[in-house]
C-alpha cells in the first residue's frame, strides 16, 4: 500500500526531507505531493521526486486533504496556525516542524484535540528524553536555551533602522549582540523562523506541571528562558541548553550543519522530521494491522 503524504511547504526543510525519503519514494511505499506557489520555478531547482501542485493561497484545502493520508508541515508558524487545526479536524496525522505554532494556546488546544494525531518534531535540538524524564518528576527548576545565529538571518522587518544597521555591520571577531531575552511565546512572535527550538524545549519539559497538555505547556513556556544572539562568528547555528533542579545539572550543546538547501536552517531539522514521520507511519501501520 502506498502512503500519500502532503508536504505543506517545499523550501529548505521540505526539499531536504524529500531527499531523505528517497528509499520510501523509490520503493513505491510513499507518494509525496507538495503544494507550491510556482511549479516551474520549483521544477528548475529540482522536484526531488515530488509531485508538485500549484496553489498555496488559493488551494482547495479540503480537496488537498481528501487526496492524502498524512500531512507534514514545514511552511512556517503562521501557516501552521492557520491550517493545522483543519488537518487535525479532518482526522489526519500532522507532523509539525513549526513547533512554535504551539505557543498560542488556542492553536495548541485545536492541534491536540483530535480526532487527528499531532506529532511534534524535536527539530534542530534534542536530548528531550532525559529532560522530559527529569521534568515529569518535578526535577527541574530552571530551563534555558541560548541560540546563536549569523546576524543576516535575524534581521526582521519590525526592527528600526538603527538595529538593522547594527546587525548589518556586525563583523567577524566582534562581540555578539543579544536580539532577544525573555520567554518562548514572545520570542516566536518576533522571530518565527528562528526559535521554534525554544517552544519545542518548553513542550518537552511540560511534565510535572498540573493540568492537561495545553495547561502544562503554558506553564512550561513561562519557565523556559530564551536568549537569541546575533553572533558574527556563528558560522553554524548553535543552541546551548541547560536545565537544573533536584534532578541535577544537565547541559547540551548543538552545532548543526546547515541545511544543504538553505544555510540559515539547521540540517538536523529535516532529519528530525523524517525520523518522526517514519515513527508516525510505523504506528499508523500497527494500528491498521490490529484493526484488520
Ligand atoms: N523545529 C525546528 O527546529 C525548526 C523549525 N523550522 C520551521 O520550519 C519552517 C520552514 O523552514 P524552511 O524550510 O527552512 O523555510 P523556507 O522558507 O526555506 O521554506 C518554507 C516554504 O514554505 C512555503 N510556504 C509559505 N507559506 C505557505 C503556505 N501557506 N502553504 C504552503 N507553503 C507555504 C514557502 O513558499 C517556502 O517555500 C520555518 O518557518 C520554521 O517555522 C525551521 C527550522 C528549525
Ligand atoms: O534551524 C535552527 O537552527 C533553529 C531554528 O531556526 C528554529 O528553531 O526556528
Question: How would you portray this structure in words?
Answer:
The structure is a single chain. This protein is of the alpha/beta class and 292 residues long. It folds into two domains: 3-124 and 268-291, 3-Layer(aba) Sandwich (Rossmann fold); 128-255, 2-Layer Sandwich (Dihydrodipicolinate Reductase, domain 2). It has helices at 12-20, 22-27, 39-45, 61-66, 77-89, 105-112, 128-136, 161-169, 184-190, 196-204, 213-223, 267-291, and strands at residues 3-8, 30-36, 51-54, 70-73, 93-96, 117-120, 142-149, 177-182, 224-230, 238-245, 248-255. The strands form two sheets. Strands 3-2-1-4-5-6 form a six-stranded parallel beta sheet, sandwiched between helices. A five-stranded mixed beta sheet has the order 8-9-7-10-11. Helix 5 (77-89) packs parallel to helix 6 (105-112). The two termini are 14 Å apart. The structure holds 1,4-dihydronicotinamide adenine dinucleotide (NAI) and oxaloacetate ion. Residues 9-112 form the Aspartate/homoserine dehydrogenase NAD-binding domain.
List keywords for this structure.
292 residues, alpha/beta, Rossmann fold, Dihydrodipicolinate Reductase, domain 2, 2 domains, six-stranded parallel beta sheet, five-stranded mixed beta sheet, 12 helices, 11 strands, binds 1,4-dihydronicotinamide adenine dinucleotide, binds oxaloacetate ion, pyridine nucleotide biosynthesis, NADP, EC 1.4.1.21
Amino acid at each position: 500500500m502506498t502512503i500519500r503524504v502532503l508536504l505543506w511547504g517545499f523550501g529548505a526543510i521540505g526539499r531536504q526531507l524529500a531527499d531523505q525519503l528517497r528509499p520510501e519514494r523509490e520503493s513505491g511505499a510513499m507518494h509525496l505531493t507538495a503544494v507550491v506557489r510556482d511549479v516551474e520555478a520549483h521544477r528548475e531547482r529540482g522536484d526531488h521526486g515530488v509531485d508538485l501542485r500549484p496553489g498555496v493561497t488559493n488551494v482547495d484545502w479540503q480537496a488537498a486533504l481528501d487526496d492524502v493520508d498524512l500531512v507534514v508541515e514545514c511552511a512556517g508558524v503562521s501557516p501552521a496556525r492557520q491550517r493545522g487545526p483543519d488537518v487535525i479536524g479532518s482526522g489526519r496525522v500532522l507532523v509539525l516542524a513549526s513547533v512554535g505554532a504551539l505557543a498560542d494556546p488556542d492553536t495548541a488546544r485545536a492541534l491536540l484535540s483530535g480526532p487527528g494525531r499531532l506529532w511534534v518534531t524535536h527539530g534542530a535540538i534534542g536530548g528531550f528524553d532525559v529532560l522530559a524524564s527529569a521534568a515529569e518528576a518535578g526535577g527541574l527548576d530552571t530551563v534555558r536555551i541560548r541560540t546563536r545565529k549569523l546576524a543576516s538571518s535575524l534581521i526582521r522587518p519590525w526592527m528600526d533602522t538603527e538595529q538593522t544597521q547594527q546587525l548589518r555591520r556586525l563583523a567577524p571577531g566582534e562581540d555578539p549582540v543579544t536580539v532577544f531575552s525573555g520567554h518562548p511565546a514572545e520570542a516566536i512572535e518576533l522571530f518565527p523562523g528562528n526559535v521554534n527550538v525554544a517552544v519545542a524545549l518548553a513542550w518537552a519539559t511540560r511534565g510535572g506541571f498540573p493540568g492537561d497538555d495545553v495547561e502544562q505547556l503554558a506553564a512550561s513556556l513561562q519557565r523556559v528562558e530564551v536568549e537569541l544572539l546575533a553572533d558574527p562568528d556563528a558560522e553554524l547555528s548553535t543552541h546551548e541548553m541547560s536545565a537544573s533542579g533536584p534532578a541535577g545539572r544537565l547541559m547540551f550543546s548543538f552545532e548543526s550543519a546547515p541545511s544543504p538547501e538553505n544555510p540559515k536552517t539547521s540540517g538536523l531539522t529535516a532529519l528530525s522530521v523524517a525520523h518522526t514521520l517514519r515513527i508516525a507511519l510505523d504506528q499508523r501501520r500497527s494500528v491498521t494491522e490490529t484493526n484488520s
